[in-house]
Design goal:
Length: 764
């Protein structure tokens, strides 16, 4: 390892090992490099790898860091590090220590769907109205309580929870929470939040166990510290309480996950939590042009709650930011299509362009425009591989084979494929389990159940015997051998491979992919001397995170589309940021909360700093939302970036829209030269100037003209504006009176024939 490979700020952060340290890493400043070099440095100084704990938020980040460390020191040392996501590391600890809390080592980890399914069952058992006790809302509240280390018994002591529940008429939340925890415990299962809560409970209730793990970890490192929640923060404090040897890396300006429980105060108050902690700032951006970095810096300086920093770039000045106003969301989508097509014709690959949006709902019109324009695109953060029906079915068989008390898995696959065990029988089984206070597995194994006929009991016994045999093999056969046996003997493989239409073929490919993945897991684990049993595989599969689902296929030449939250940690040459309107971005839900507004600004900062070479901003003056066309004002964030960073234009003020400085000024993006390609020069808009917008920010007909008068004012060549299609030129007129029609060539929406008595046209 050559420490001289680092810049001075990075080097100082790496060499600090005798005090707590906070490394503030601006976007694109090389934080992963600092973490990997720091771990390599600690190893070179003689620290044993098993005494180093490194916590990340994604399996991908942990994997990449381990690979880099292996090149700096050795594969053997890198493999012995305690490195992984919070959930995977804590799950590993709980496999060893969970018996102290009443769990055995083969506990199941429930995903979001499993958790919601159990909540729905509890709500039905309690005869509660799901319109009031919405399962997702209940699930989110339980998650929030766990992330704040609030147990069911203390739930009502949290004023925020109590008042919110009273307003929503959900006064039975504490009882639901308690039932949910009891059922998880009975099923020998934990959800993702339990991995945090139970780790904290383990240490809090067993000081001697906490001390053992404090003695094990001589140094603790945490990536993306701005994304930690209260529970994670408290566990880190506990683990580092004795030695105080901790290094956290993050960027307060990129704290955007409060809806998942992330608490920006963890990073802002780090030096209060660890008195004497040293602060290091990585301020050189290696990713983006000076224009992009400076514009983002100007924006984020509007936040009050932040750690001051001056991020800079030594790359070229680069192109100014392009800003395109649109008359409607349809017009906006067509503008994006036009710019993408123009860029691609100039030689820029589709995969170099990414469209970001604040909400998933914004994607549809952009998708429609891409489909119409035959532009290939890919939407990221869609359904997880492990949530696909055929994969989840097989996973549930595997989970039940390891943990027969996993009631959610049993409920899902007891009649998959169909084996004559209907919903009524399943309800009777679960009802008997509740009445006798026994696990469903034990009721199933008893061979009897009230009101179930002999034929059905025989089918239940066949299922039980099959699963019991799988369970017996779970501690003997390797994961792939047993998974293949389960897939065949359960009938799943025959069921999935019996169809021949495209959907069936896709399911077959998915199942084969999973079985191949299990085979690879066994082979890799054997080579590394790790466990190869089904329980070992399931721990890895269960801990795949949302953040790990967004890998970009670099061989797929498609435009990338995703929410800004999904884009965090990624980078692209050209980034379109859409929907920059008040009420959308920033969200209308932030209007009463200065702190929430600051997070929206951080979200925009994250969006801008994904770009390497070019940022394109768009907004619509009218957008179809909530079942109607709504007018909107340009986002305040547009004006918070100084005009010097934009292409020549006058920025919108208040309800005003962007206009040219003169009727003939064209807005252009300076050429971007890709390797071996042409230039990205978006076409200029038509040379006429749009009218000033009204206070609502939209286009409305002149009050002095009705639609009939608009019709009489039209002639071939007249410039007009339509509230959805934007600007255009009248090409032809036909008919009179109520049958009058106009053929209009719109700038972005193509040619339309409009009935004038219905068309919302404004003459320019």
């Amino acid at each position: 390892m050559n420490i001289d490979d680092l810049n001075p700020s990075q080097r100082d952060a790496v060499l600090c090992s005798d005090a707590p340290s906070l490394v503030i890493a601006g976007a694109g400043s090389g934080k992963t490099r600092v973490l990997t070099y720091k771990i390599a440095y600690l190893l070179e100084q003689g620290m044993q790898p098993w005494n180093i704990l490194a916590l990340t938020f994604t399996n991908k980040a942990a994997r990449e860091m381990r690979e880099r460390i292996a090149t700096l020191v050795s594969l053997e040392k890198a493999s012995s590090l305690w490195m992984g996501t919070f959930h995977s590391i804590f799950a590993r600890i709980l496999r060893t220590e969970g018996h102290r809390l009443g769990y055995d080592t083969n506990y199941t980890i429930y995903d979001t769907d499993d958790s919601k399914s159990l909540i729905r069952l509890i709500l039905r058992e309690m005869c509660l109205d799901e319109k009031v006790y919405k399962p997702t809302a209940v699930q989110n509240r339980i998650s929030a309580a766990k992330n704040r280390l609030v147990l069911p018994s203390a739930y009502n002591s949290v004023r925020e929870f109590r008042e919110s529940d009273d307003m929503a008429k959900r006064t039975l939340m504490p009882e639901i929470y308690q039932r949910y925890q009891d059922r998880c415990k009975q099923a020998n299962a934990m959800d993702f939040d339990d991995l945090l809560l139970n780790t904290w409970l383990l240490f809090d209730r067993n000081p001697e166990v906490a001390q053992q793990w404090q003695d094990r970890f001589h140094f603790v490192l945490v990536d993306e510290y701005q994304d930690t929640n209260f529970a994670q923060h408290q566990i880190i404090r506990l683990l580092t309480d004795r030695r105080q040897r901790v290094c956290v890396v993050g960027d307060d300006a990129q704290s955007i996950y409060s809806f998942r429980g992330a608490d920006i105060d963890n990073i802002l108050r780090f030096q209060e939590t660890y008195p004497g902690a040293r602060l290091f700032k990585l301020e050189r951006n290696y990713r983006s042009t000076q224009t992009i970095v400076n514009a983002a810096g100007s924006l984020i300086r509007n936040n009050r709650e932040q750690i001051a920093k001056q991020v800079f770039s030594e790359k070229e000045v680069g192109n100014p930011i392009a800003l395109f106003p649109a008359y409607s969301d349809i017009d906006e989508a067509n503008i994006i299509l036009r710019e993408v097509q123009k860029a691609h014709r100039s030689g820029i690959p589709y995969k170099d362009m990414t469209v970001l949006y604040r909400t998933n709902a914004q994607s549809r019109k952009i998708e429609d425009s891409f489909l119409h324009g035959r532009v290939p695109y890919h939407i990221y953060a869609g359904m997880s591989f492990y949530q696909r029906e055929e994969i989840k079915d097989l996973l549930c068989y595997l989970r039940l084979s390891v943990n027969p008390y996993d009631e959610e898995s049993l409920r899902r696959i007891i009649n998959k494929p169909t084996r004559g065990i209907g919903d009524t029988t399943v309800r009777k089984l679960f009802l008997e389990a509740r009445k006798t206070d026994k696990p469903v597995w034990d009721v199933l194994g008893s061979g009897s159940c009230p009101d179930v006929n002999a034929g059905t009991l025989a089918r239940l016994k066949t299922f039980y015997d099959m699963m019991a045999a799988f369970h017996e093999s779970a501690t003997a056969d390797d994961a792939h051998t047993l998974a293949m046996r389960i897939a065949k003997e359960s009938g799943l493989m025959q069921h999935v491979f019996s169809g021949h239409d495209p959907d069936d073929i896709s399911k077959q490919e998915n199942m084969q992919e999973m079985l191949d993945g299990i085979a690879n897991f066994v082979q890799d684990s054997r080579e590394q001397g790790l466990g190869t049993l089904l329980t070992d595989y399931l721990q890895e599969a269960s801990l795949a995170t949302d953040f790990d689902r967004n890998d970009i296929d670099k061989d797929d030449d498609s435009v990338n589309m995703m929410t800004i939250h999904s884009a965090k940690g990624l980078e692209f040459p050209i980034v379109f940021i859409t929907g920059l309107e008040e009420g959308l971005f920033p969200s209308e839900m932030t209007s009463d909360s200065p702190r929430a507004l600051e997070e929206e600004r951080r979200l925009f900062y994250v969006a801008i700093t994904r770009a390497e070479r070019q940022v394109v901003l768009t907004y619509a003056k009218s957008r179809f939302r909530n079942g109607k066309m709504e007018f909107s004002r340009p986002s305040r964030f547009i004006r918070e970036i100084p005009q010097q960073y934009y292409s020549p234009l006058r920025l919108p003020q208040g309800g005003e829209t962007v206009q040219r400085q003169t009727p003939r000024v064209e807005q252009r993006i300076k050429p971007i030269r890709p390797q071996g390609a042409g230039s990205f020069v978006p076409p200029s808009r038509p040379s006429f100037t749009p009218p000033s917008a009204h206070s609502a920010g939209g286009i409305t007909p002149s009050p002095s003209r009705g639609r009939e008068e608009v019709g009489t004012a039209l002639s071939v060549g007249t410039p007009v504006v339509h509230e959805r299609f934007g600007r255009g030129i009248v090409q032809a007129l036909e008919g009179t009176g109520i049958d009058a029609k106009a053929t209009v060539q719109f700038e972005n929406a193509g040619t339309k024939v409009l009935m004038l008595r219905f068309a919302k046209l404004t003459v320019l």
